[in-house]
Amino acid sequence: MVDEKMNLGRVTGKDVTEIVFRAYRDQDVFLGEMLIGDCQDSDRRFILRVINIMHGNEASESSWAPRTAGAFMDGDNKDQEYHVYDADRRLYNHVVCAPLGYLMGQGNDVQFRSPKTIPSHFSRVRRASKEDYRFLERYLGDVKLGSLRSGEQVIRHVPVGVASKDLAQHMGVFATTGMGKSNLMKRLAGSVLESGTLGLLILDPHGEYIDGGKEELRGLMHHPRAASNLETYVTREVEGNVSSVKISSSEISIQDMENLWPFSQPQVELLNAVWGRERDNWLPYIVDTEGAQIYQDFNEQFHEGSIGVVKRRASVLNRSHFITRDTRISMTKTIIEQLHTGKVVLVDLAGASETEELLISSVLARAIFQINQSKFKDKKKFKEIPICLIALEEAQRVFNRAWGGIFPQIAREGRKFKTGLCAISQQPKLIDNEVISQFNTLVILGLADRQDRERLSSSARQDISKLDYEIQTLMTGEGLITGPNTPFALPLKVDLYESYLNELVTEPKENKKPIDSGFF
Amino acid sequence: MRFLSFICLPKVSESISFSYLPYTLKYAVIDFRRMLKGLNEKELENVVSQMVSDMEEPQPGSAQEKGIIEIKGDITESNFQAFTKSENAEMLAVDGGSATILNAGSFVVAGVRVGHVIFHGKEFSGASEPDYHLLHLASGHLEKYYEIFFEKIVGGNPPDYPKGLEEAVGRIRALMEWNQVEKIQSQDIPEGAVLAFDGAMWAGIKGVGDLLERIVEQAKQKKIILCGISKKSMLVHNSRPLIPAVQMLGDDSLPGATWHYPLDTGNYAEKLFGKIYLAKLHPRSRYVFRVDLSLPGGVEPEQAFGKLAYYADDPTYVGYPYPLARVHNDVAFSRAEVSDLKAMLRAAALQKGMNPKEWQLTFQDFHEILDTGR
Ligand SMILES: Nc1ncnc2c1ncn2[C@@H]1O[C@H](COP(=O)(O)OP(=O)(O)O)[C@@H](O)[C@H]1O
Ligand SMILES: [Mg+2]
To answer: What are the DSSP E strand ranges found in A107-180?
Structure first.
């Protein structure tokens, strides 16, 4: 006997890329829903994702529906009613699905296969059961973000996240403003606070992570594990157990300067010459030394104009409250140690100018990358450190080209050195294609812009081109995850951070040790 | 009703093998809704056996009996009678379908299927398993075949015989339809329900008068409204088609209304078992139908038409009671079904020893070639 609530219809046809079934007229089916097509000739259970829904009818003439609508309209005008008899027989919905793959076997032996064949004719299509979702367990990722989603429905008993072991291969979080990127990052940080699986550095230009930024929102400081596992650095007055952001001028590189301003060829040559001579002292040297003296020091090689430009820009940095010449005061070393013990480090940059913010971010990212790189030579030490994930809002600013700057470099080389990036952006179309293709885990929330979606679909691990319409229609907090090990783009509903906190307080979870198995 | 036991014609061999049945069943799987449903395999077996052994010269058939009725009197506005749609109704609808599955010239294999549907209010509430027969009709034993059906349904010997294969199929189908009406009438039907069938309520076949009388009487007793609705009418007035003339006048004199128009059938009355009307069952209907009514005592024609109109509001079949459309579609043979049946019969015949070439030469039809070029 067929369970009527689960039974949706029968397959009518199509091909390996698309399966169409006839659905009962009165059964609600939604875009993005995951359904099961039970092959009638084998034990394959096809996982079908709804990508379109259309009207269908049994009339042999294509003009039947418009003519019938015409009759109804005519009746409306003349106050006459019509009645479609046997409506459940004559009318139905055509549901177009993208086959995600199929399952074979039962229980623990269940296997997932990519969709290389089709279900038999007239296979029955039904809603997925708890049992059907079991195979997903091994793909769901240990850094929880929310629950599996089937269309609009949230499947609470199947938690979904990203896999920490894949995060050295970088991740991207993309969504139109307001669709839930920051909430997702808070939720991700919450998981890391709970587990300590990663060293997570969050660079927060808007100051919204620490306390939520708004009355009704909560921040990382409200997390029950904040006291032990959260370290916060601020650029403004904030109450609580926080430290001030300070970097040393010696940590700033010529490359950082180049990323902040455009320099002409002679200006770049001057900067490099100063660095060659002064090394870590290059910035104080430029700031403190008279232009004429610099002119002399470099044998009159550089034009006064170039020296003037370089000096002016260097003094902008020198004036910053967050830059000190005292190398002992720098926070960089401490932050890296904290990351290496699996902590969440929040750097609140709301009090910094955009120039300062980008500079501080670059300095920290480079320091992490270089230290991890140096540890790599000592296998034993390297094995002890967790993957460090650097989360960066408005990432399109540093990823608009594939070369130049520390961030593109980490995107290319970081995976080897346990240095991962989490790029957050509302405009992936501004991010260089080559960079995006380095992001092996993508979390895609609602994206209204077609070009943004196209940029992602050309570089995602799984084919998401068929999901274009679904991505357009995602509601706040709804998303898709693609990763190196996900069997297909996993639909998820991200937990609202505030609700997650509430649930966490009611049922506290055990802390887990940092996990590092299987990195090599 | 089943005819299987007595369709045992002279040339059927005694040792019938069912070895081809799995093959048949395999074909049956192809069927979507109803192929072979209601058909007995033994009957199928007989048909195949006859096909294989029976190859005779064709005999010319004759034209089917025509039912042209000349209507008396003038068509006048005052005869139109408006009525209103009733609030609720119950209807049983009967119809039959037939198709020539194979045609060898000298014989045909035809499928005949009759069924009914029941509607309570606007809802479909049930259908019969169809009365379904595969007929092997050869000019040589047409009479025998017809006698069997006639005897079983009407009783006694037929006063005349069909002249030709097509007419035989038509008569057998008509008898089966009447038989279906009689059968369901004997079931539990609420008073005031409409029992509608496709066609006229007249004795188009010699000798069926008794049967019709039985049916009409029983309907009256059970207070059932018996009604035949003709999709095509043979009514004429001054030798010209009647319906268009009445329809033009009706649309003019009662625009936007439902109406009926009683007809004076004069001296045809002895062949008729109800009164004939023309009726427009929906204000927006483009069709006016001939309706033959036999009413139980105390029921006015307007009440009966109100109930027919209740079902005539499907936007696809405006002006025609939906249950009749439904049963028509249920019993009709689709082209796909006919070709599946053809393939099934061929497989069965070859299994029984028929040579594929012989099959091809027997049933080939140049029309098929002509059609491919259309
Ligand atoms: N997963 C979610 N579930 C429910 N509501 C959410 C979710 N994510 C975000 N929201 C709502 O949307 C608002 C904006 O989310 P936010 O994360 O700030 O978006 P973004 O960073 O993409 O601009 C939040 O304040 C919250 O009210
Ligand atoms: Mg945000």
So the answer is: 111-113, 124-127, 143-150, 153-162, 171-174
* pLDDT tens-digit readout, B289-339: 999 999 999 999 999 999 999 999 999 999 999 999 999 999 999 888 898
Domain definitions of chain B by residue range = 1-54, 79-331, 335-372
Q: What Å distances lie between residue A276 and A264, A319, A406, CA to CA?
A: 18, 24, 20
Condensed to tens digits (0 to 9), the pLDDT of residues A33-49 reads 999 999 999 999 999 99
The CA dihedral of A419, A365, A182, A436, to the nearest 10 degrees, is -60
Look at ligand 1, atom 15, and give the residue with the nearest C-alpha: A180
Domain boundaries, chain A: 7-138, 157-245+331-503, 251-318
pLDDT < 50: residue spans in chain A? 511-520
The amino acid occupying position A404 is G
- Strands (DSSP E) contained in chain B are 69-70, 81-82, 90-103, 107-120, 123-127, 131-138, 194-198, 225-230, 235-237, 240-241, 259-262, 275-280, 289-294
Q: Is ligand 1 within 6 A of the CB of residue A175?
A: yes
Neighbours of B131 (CB within 10 A): 22
Please tell me the predicted confidence (pLDDT) of residue A274: 95
Residue B370: CB partners within 8 Å, gap ≥ 6? none
Instruction: Indicate the residue of B119, B283, B314 with minimum beta-carbon distance to A84.
Output: B314
Asked whether the beta carbons of A86 and B330 are under 8 A apart, the reply is no
Q: From residue B274, give the alpha-carbon distance in Å to each of A319, A332, B295.
A: 110, 104, 8
C-beta of residue A16 within 8 angstroms of C-beta of residue A96? no
Does 3.40.50.300 match the CATH number of domain A157-245+331-503? yes
A286 touches A314 (CB < 8 A): yes
> A421 or B74, which is more confident?
A421
- What architecture does CATH give domain B79-331? 2-Layer Sandwich (3.30)
User: Given the CA of residue A179, which atom of ligand 1 is nearest to it?
Assistant: 22
| pLDDT value of residue A266 | 93
Number of other residues whose CB lies within 10 A of the CB of residue B99: 17
Question: How many A from CA of B357 to the centre of ligand 2?
Answer: 78
Q: Shortest CB distance from B315 goes to which of A71, A78, A86?
A: A71
Token representation of residue B204: 């188009």
Neighbours of ion ligand 2 (CB under 5 A): A 181-182
Q: Check whether B90 has a pLDDT greater than 70.
A: yes
Note the pLDDT tens digit of each residue in B3-53.
333 333 323 222 222 223 333 333 333 333 345 666 777 777 777 777 666
B315 touches chain A (CB under 8 A): yes
Closest CA to ligand 1's atom 23: A178
Instruction: Identify whether the C-beta of residue B178 lies closer than 8 Å to the C-beta of residue B43.
Output: no
pLDDT score, position A123: 96
The answer to whether the CB of A446 is under 6 A from ligand 1 is: no
CB A95 within 8 A of CB A11: no
- pLDDT for B65 equals 34
User: Collapsing DSSP states into helix, strand and coil, what is residue A479?
Assistant: strand
Contact B322 A85 (CB under 8 A): yes
Residue A427: CB within 6 Å of ligand 1? no
Contact B247, B233 (CB under 8 A): no
* pLDDT higher than 90, residue B355: no
| d(CA A84, nearest CA chain B) in Å | 5
- ipTM value: 0.73
The answer, yes or no, to whether any atom of ligand 1 lies below 6 A from the CB of A179, is yes
DSSP-derived pairing of the beta strands B69-70 and B235-237 = parallel
**B126-178 confidence digits (pLDDT tens):** 998 889 998 888 877 788 889 989 999 988 899 999 988 888 999 999 999 99
Nearest residue to B143 (alpha-carbon basis) of B159, B129, B128: B159
